[in-house]
Records
---
Amino acid sequence: MTAGDSADAHPGLGDGEAPGGNPAVPVITIDGPSGTGKGTLAARLAAHLGWHCLDSGALYRVLGLAAGRRGIDLDDEAALAGLAANLGIGFAAGRVLLEGEDLGDLIRTETAGLAASRVAVHPLVRAALLHWQRCQARPPGLVADGRDMGTLVFPRAGLKVFLDASAQERAERRYKQLMGKGLDANLPDLVEAVRQRDARDRDRPVAPLRAAAGAVLVDSTALSANNVFELVLEEVRRVFPDQFHQVAAD
Ligand code: DC
């Protein structure tokens, strides 16, 4: 299940809602640098619990792509914020749509990741996307992954996870992924790209990547995706015992 599960254009700039969205809806946040397996973990947890899933990085990726298509400079904050406020993004059955077009792997390239990281530094862009993200906290629950899910978007989330791994390990995972798809890849270049993106995400003045207060820290460098899932599931059982009993009983 993915955020929205519909191709609704998001409502754009919004404020005035409770920080962290509807407090009655349970939320799990998973933050961390690129390539730690946040997306896989979030999707798996959401499927296990029957909750919605928000891939917030996809928003920034789609925005970067849409900006490129419209010839908007990635440093033009006002134009990007205007675009973000009217972005016809939708999520449906694991697919990411822009104005109804299935973007497939177009937003999963290194170039798209870099463009996402660049548009994400602008405060007006982040403000334009905030309300829509909070609206994804709908019953029965939400698993949200990104950089600022636990710190700014859902500061009241019941469970916050910060997933990390060494830059070398993350670049190697990406390398294997690209080779597996038959694509050209160069490991030293990937390590450098990972480090650059980390630095931009961590050092920006607005919503920098950092672990939220109270977050469970998980270093996945030497762990398999299954190990990480089981470890985090233990935390879910601890924090949301009722939810878990419901799942177990289903
Ligand atoms: O998680 P990802 O690799 O798909 O994210 C792509 C970029 O988007 C990332 O480098 C920084 C930005 N991003 C962000 O600033 N805040 C988020 N909550 C998610 C992603």
Note: Strands lie at 27-31, 52-55, 89-92, 95-98, 101-102, 142-146, 159-164, 216-219.
---
Amino acid sequence: MQTAQRRRFLLQSAALTVAGVSFPASWAAGKIKPGERAALIVVDVQNCFVPGGTLPVAKGDEVVPVINRIATAFENVVVTQDWHTQGHASFASTHAGKKPFETTQLSYGQQVLWPDHCVQGTDDAALHKDLKVPKAQVILRKGFHQHVDSYSAFEEADRKTSTGLAGYLKQRGIKTVFVTGLATDFCVAWTALDAKRLGFETYVVEDATRAIDLNGSLDAAWKNMKAKGVKRIQSSDIDVA
Ligand code: VGL
Ligand code: ZN
């Protein structure tokens, strides 16, 4: 069969049988089926990051139905929460004369300063009420050290302190992660880059994320992720039976 013909055949057939083995149409059409060694990571889908919250990401709430839908295809789900102390080092209000979205130098390097957000135990820091990921096995909170931020779910911004997530996933035999949530260019990108660096095959599900996009940060994040081998996919690429 010619390649084009074969592709059409694969797309049309409900099931493809090769040497007596039947592959479902979804496989034939090239969809990704997350297996028992894959985990969905749902990053920071919290009230603080959706319209009405303290650090709203434009259209941040639109990730919720997309995540709810693909979550059904996963056996393993991890949810994260940005979980800051009051007076956290990443808050502009902590630094005299500083305004949100300016930067400052902290002990570990440059830090973007944010409005006060996601303070531990507040409604603002709670998960979005419509997020439905009942299979979630661990809720990992990050950014709770007063003087260190943590965009990544794996490693704090000092690049020394581990959150323990890599160990948790590795001990459970997880090899592949699919990263979703908020915000594409901060916590999602940092989580995906660390996941890849720490040895996981890493996908970012683009339409299951929304960005802050501060001074070109979204473009930079995608370029960096591409360069490091993080795969960019859409939720329609996942086989949600
Ligand atoms: C985030 C800025 C500050 C995020 C968290 O979840 O992307 N961004 N804290
Ligand atoms: Zn934060």
Note: The radius of gyration is 19 Å.
